[in-house]
Prior knowledge:
single chain, 12 helices, two-stranded parallel sheet, transmembrane helix, about 600 residues, five-stranded mixed β-sheet, alpha/beta
Amino acid sequence: MDKLQPLIRNRFWILGALTLPLAMYGFFSANGALKAATEQRVSTLKGLTIPTGTNDPNEDYKEKLATINAEYEQNVESSIVEIWNKQKERMTWPSVVANDVPPIFMDPEGFDLDVTDTYKRHYSQLMLKLQERVEPVMPIDRNAAGGAAIGVPFSGRGAMPQEADVPWQQKVILAAQLPIAQFDRLAATSEQVWNAQIDIWLLELLFDAVRKMNEDKDSVTEAVLRRIDVLILFGGSGEPRPTGAPAAAGGYGGYDSGYGGGYDSGYPGPGGGGGGGYGSDRGGSGASMSVNVAFDPAQEFGSSADASASASTASMGYSAGGYDDEYGSGYGGGYGGMASGGKQLRYIADSEEKRVLERGFYMSVIIMQSKIPDFIVELANSEWPIRVTRFHVGKNPYFSEAGAGAQMYGSPMGMMGGYGGEGDYDGDESYGGGYAGSYGGSYGGGFGSLGAGGQGAGIPGVGNLSSNLPAYATAAMNHPDLVQLDLCGVITMFKQPQEIIDALTVADGEAVVDDTTISTDGTEMEVMESETLAPEATEDDSLEIPATESADPVEIPATESAVEEETVEAEAVPADGTTETSEETSGGDIPAPEEP
């Protein structure tokens, strides 16, 4: 036992000496295995990652992603074609030219000369038909008894002014000068015909919004929107011009130089005297107005001057000054200092790459204050995209008109500085002092013949219906809830996606069929292949003019009747407005019509 005492006393050191090597062996053995497993796992994970310095994705991922993207792209392209087909429902043409519309949208060489000439001669009738959509208040028929001279109220014995006999309820005072297309005197070009018809489609959208606002009203005394003072279509560079910036050549000039004396002096208020541009129609007591409601749309859309265009535009049928390119020498010497003879941009920031066309519009209306949001929503809900970018609200400048002892039948429009004096128009046709009404009598003393300084392409009876109005129409402007609303915005049109249609046709291995087009009377028409169907060839039978009836107020030459009869006969349009197509008994395929 005594011999074991040293071992017992030093047992800790003895056991420590024995266990330490064992512990070290166990630690390094386990650590080595763990390290080997870690290295193996890291190596495995590194093998799954993309090598550094390369952007090549995993092949399987790339193939599946390409499939998904192709499906998305096809869905987008199909949606574009669907939008185009929906847009075509409103792209109606008068029946006299419907069969000759080229299949390519806005084809600059698509129309034959005889077709453009036919359209030009019928254009005044199209504009008269267009303004019916807004249900305008027509001037008094001052020659109902056959005694009054044109332009001289109550001059004849027994003359008894009567309201115009029109087939619609008169709800809106259409005092605005409508945008009138300008054609070459000898022969209109295809581009001019396209531009004229497109503007008609755009104005139809605006007028339909006004009509819906008043659809449950019976007259102007009950209407929500009672007057349209300004209605303009324009283009721009797309680069907004800051407020207060000077008017560049081709700009709008803040309305100070455009519209005659500008809205500062030319749009002062109700009455009938003085002022320039549109001012004479709203002259008088407006000098007391402290707020200028009107604004320059160039602040939103940029200058309308086409910097890349040549100053010489004679070959395109354009005149000098203001909105000459499209609307003659009009709008009070220009929309604010536009370059004389300079070509104006028709669309906003247009380019070959854009799939849409955007055309600006500016309106000044008299409307019930509580219905302003409804009107803006109605515009936004149009069948074609419309967005309102800016609007100003101010006092009704006509509120004191009835109290100021306005004339019973309104005041003549005689001294309208923006439209020039009487008898100066030197265009293809002269309309003389005053003009014959399209629905009976004559509206004298007002429009006269558009002056050389005015809108050179004016059409009698189209717009400017603000004088010689019935007494109730004048009194209707004195409602306390009426305000002046000036607004501008953009109307969007989609270009024809012909490349997409062709691509989808090749991809599917068969012709892509457009949606069913709708005629103006609401009946469905047979579906035809998109490659041969003229996209805008839907016939508008409501605008057809009988061949045996003279065009009122502008007399159509005698040679027109024969041309029109021949054209209408060639169309073979059934009475119900549908287009008949025959099916082959063997296969039942719809035959493609011959291209015009």
